[in-house]
Structures are given as C-alpha cells and as structure tokens.
Amino acid sequence: MSANKAEDTMTMDAYVKEGERRAYEIGNRGPLRFNSDGTLHKDIADAYWRCGFYVFEGALSAEELKDLQKDFETVLDRAPHTKDAEVDSEGRPAIGSEFTRSSFNFAKPLSDPVGGTSRNNGRHPAKMNEPTPPEDAPDFVITSISSPLQLMDSFLRLYGHPQLLSVAEHINGPDFTPFTESIIVKPPGLGASVAWHQDGTKQWDKPDWDQGTHGFNFMAQLYGSTAANGVWVLPGSHKQGKLDIKKMIEDNNGSDRLPGAVPMVCEPGDVVMSNRQALHASFPNTSPDWRVTVNFGFHRYSSVIDLETTYGEEPVVYDAERVFERSRLIAVGINARQQRFPDEQHYVYQPTVGMEDDNQWNEVTRENVVKDYNLRDLGI
After folding, report:
1. Which helix (H) or strand (E) holds 197?
2. Pairwise CA distance, residues 344 & 341, whole Å
3. Helix, strand and coil percent figures for the chain, each rounded to 5
4. How far is CA 36 from each of CA 33, 39, 40, 42, 343, rounded to the nearest angstrom?
C-alpha cells in the first residue's frame, strides 16, 4: 500500500469512527411509538423534522425479517448474472423477464456510476472517490433492484405494515400517495457508491414548498447498516432548499467526506424514515459486510396531483386516475399482509375504503394491479 493510500485509509477510518459516534448522539432513534390517540409520538416527529431522518429500532419482527431475507436471496440467485444478461448464473431465464422494464441495475465494483453526470436529472453533480477494486472482482455488480413489489411477495406485505403506514399518514396526511420502490444492494468489498444528492427534482419552486414537499422514504435494513457501508445524511439539510452540492464539495477541498454528516447505523430489522430532501450519499463498500436496504416512499397528495412531468421520455400528467391506480398497491399490500399475519390489526387506507373486494391479494390483482405497476410511478 502506498503512503498516500495508507494515509487516505486512516483519514476515512477516522471520519467513519467520528460519524458513528455522532449517529448515536443526535437523538433520532428508538422504537416505533404512538400517542394514546394513535398519532405518531411527538418526540419522534420532532426528532424527524429536526434531523431529516429517524431510525425505528426493531420495527420488523423476526418472522417478517426472515421472509424478506429469504425472498431477497431467491431474487439475487435468479438475477441476471451480469449487466445486460438475460439469464442467471446457471443459465436459467432471469427472474422478472416477463415484466416490461428490467428491474436490475449494475455498475463496476466500487465505482460511482452517476456522480458528475447528467443521469437522474443531474442531481448527483460531484463524483465520489473510486477505490481500486480487488483483482478478482467481477466486471459488474448489482447496485439496485427496481420495482421489487412485483418480485417479492414479502415486500408487498411489508408495504402494508400498519404501523409504518400510520407514520406515513401522520407525516403526509391520510390521502398520502406512493413514490417508487427499490432495493439497494451493497456487496461486501465491491458495492458501488451513490454520490451526494437530494432526491427531489420537480417541486423545489412550488409556491408552498416546505421541509416535507418531496416526501420521505422508509428504508428497511435486511442485514444491518454500518458507518462503513450505510447511507450518510447531513442533518437538517431537508430544510434548506435545493443545495449547491458541487460547491459544497469544492469548499471541502474536493473531498466527498462532508463535515457534519452522520451515517444511518442500524441492526437487521431496523427501518429508517428519511426525508427525500435531505442531502445524502453512500461511499463505496470496502467493508466485509453486506448492506441490503428495502426502500419504499410516500408523498403528500398535493405534491403529485396534476403535476406535469416526464416518465422515461414521454410527457405525463399525474391526474387523479393515475394517482389512484398507483395507490391501489397500498390496499393490495394491506390485504396481502392480512393473509400472512391474520391476527395483526390492519391499517385502513382512506382513499380505497369501500373498495376492499377489488383490492384483495390474489392472482387477479397480481396480474392487473401489481404486474408492471412501475409504469404508473409517481416520481417527483
């Protein structure tokens, strides 16, 4: 190891250690708690709005976590064996080949595939440090799995989690709407980075913009999340509008280790609620630990209704019909969960009250509601 590389490693180790210390000191973690009237506990809401994220410790039961891990490992086993492949590592047709859009996204090991490019509406303006991968590294690794509700029944059931949906109602109102879903995959020693960015792209100039305009993501951790492989957040940045990220990096002597950022440190089964406007990133995973994060987000109805935007290259309008049809996934997820956990108190999603028969989880809704549901996503 060269002297410069050794020094850089020591500097990164110190940054990670300091970030982990702060992560446990800022007061934004604990179990899911609610007030006697069923609303989100004030201490949690206050900490979330102060920091821009909150770690719900132990939010998933051991049984549900096992279901998710098993389904994910099946999907990973049946995934395309490399970028642009149509078969898995054993030559079988890759899972999800019947869907209109491919679910699997790849990048070179330890690379930053989007930083400093125009991809994702140019919201990653500065490139992350790219370590040299091991000599025996594959050409490509999976970085994320898009639209996994149609790949994992356990994820669809998680989508109907009553306490998490109650949190969504408290934050975004009873008519909250979906965003998109994904699974972030960080293989040990190989996982690619995600450059510093804010998720929102469409509503920064909205006349009534505020700290919650672009919604939030739930981030369920299947194997835990460490300071070395997890997402880092700049607390409070969700309140500051659209930031000049490139200048922030330049003012930090070109370093991607922004001062004041803290990592999402989690155990398996923890779920993070993260504001989409918060500035965040993840470094390449040079650690020996897997991180697999199941993401699903929600918006305010007022943030999406009648928004004119593009989906792919096609102009679209998020009219009431599109919003409703996309939101049916919540109702189907609730019913799927009831079938798996019949003794659990289920959540009542107000926009689909009275339509329960149409939103049962069965082979009809699998084909007509869940399959290719991502063609109706509500990205903002």
Report:
1. strand 194-197
2. 6
3. 35, 20, 45
4. 10, 7, 9, 11, 21
> Would you say residue 182 lies in a domain?
yes
CA–CA gap between residue 30 and residue 242 (Å, rounded): 29
**Cα distance between the two ends of the chain:** 44
- Residue 31 inside a domain? The answer is yes
Question: 233: domain CATH number?
Answer: 2.60.120.620
| CA nearest neighbour of 52 among 211, 290, 213 | 211
Per-residue pLDDT of the chain (380 residues), as tens digits, is: 444 454 465 588 999 999 999 999 999 999 999 998 989 999 999 999 999 999 999 999 999 999 999 999 999 999 999 999 999 999 999 999 999 999 999 999 999 999 988 888 788 889 999 999 999 999 999 999 999 999 999 999 999 999 999 999 999 999 999 999 999 999 999 999 999 999 988 889 889 999 999 999 999 999 999 999 999 999 999 999 999 999 999 999 999 999 999 999 999 999 999 999 999 999 999 999 999 999 999 999 999 999 998 877 789 999 999 999 999 999 999 999 999 999 999 999 999 999 999 999 999 999 999 999 999 999 88
pTM over 0.70: yes
Where in the sequence is the domain holding 202, given as residue range(s)? 3-301
* Angstrom distance (rounded) from CA 244 to CA 81: 38
DSSP SS3 for 369: helix
Q: Where does residue 247 rank: exposed (0-12), middle (13-18), buried (19+ CB within 10 A)? A: exposed
Structure tokens, 86:
């149509």
Domain count, the chain: 1
Any alpha helices (H) in the chain, and if so which ranges? 3-23, 42-51, 62-77, 119-122, 153-159, 162-172, 245-251, 301-304, 320-340, 363-365
Assigned token pair, 60? 């998933």
| DSSP reduced 3-state for 181 | strand
